[in-house]
Specification:
alpha/beta, Rossmann fold, 3-stranded antiparallel beta sheet, binds inosinic acid
């Protein structure tokens, strides 16, 4: 019989918060006050965005998009579809895409392309986690929370089959039938 998967803490909650505070300060330093719009990618980035927005000591706006990827268990097919669009215009604004994790880079390559067509003043990416060993498309991530090895992680917004998003810590999912 298959064993149940277990979780092992990779990055504890306090360390995540400490790093997000640093990123918030850095973002506030890099942009004119009030110019930045955070674009959170649902659902994984919602918790990161909530903490990051409050760590930026300046006015920010935010909005959300959702995408789905086809034909993948844990690997990307390269096909991405927009399933929820923004409510606001991006024309002339400084866009900061807020993503939970950059893995192959396929999702962010697609999103950056879509958002570029909305004529923002600038586009940069903030990703809580980066798994560079899995990259298939080159992506420039300006703000990275943590670089991690090639392991499947859950918690702090990240899921496996919609589970584990509410774990406080970032955990490696081990065992079971992943
Ligand atoms: P990419 O297009 O391969 O870069 O995939 C990025 C998306 O895959 C992320 O937004 C996550 O939703 C998902 N993903 C990639 N790696 C993990 C992981 O280790 N845990 C949970 N989700 C992941
Ligand atoms: Mg995601």
């Amino acid at each position: 019989m298959a064993s149940e998967p277990t979780t092992r803490i990779l990055i504890p909650y306090d360390k995540v918060q400490e790093r997000i505070r640093e990123l918030g300060q850095q973002i506030a330093h890099d942009y004119p006050p009030g110019s930045v719009v955070l674009i959170g990618i649902l659902k994984g980035a919602c918790i990161f965005l909530a903490d990051l927005a409050r760590a930026i000591p300046a006015p920010v706006k935010f909005d959300f998009m959702a995408v789905s990827s086809y034909g993948r268990g844990k690997t990307s097919s390269g096909e991405v579809k927009l399933t929820k669009d923004l409510d606001m215009s991006l024309e002339g604004v400084d866009v900061l895409i807020v993503e939970d994790i950059v893995d192959t880079g396929v999702t962010l390559t697609y999103l950056a392309h879509v958002l570029q067509q909305r004529r923002p003043r600038s586009i940069q990416i903030a990703a809580l986690l980066d798994k560079p060993s899995r990259r298939m498309r080159p992506v420039q991530v300006k703000y990275v929370g943590f670089t991690i090895p090639d392991e499947f992680v859950v918690g702090y917004g990240l899921d496996h089959a919609e589970n584990y998003r509410n774990l406080r810590d970032i955990c490696v999912l081990e065992g079971g039938e992943l």
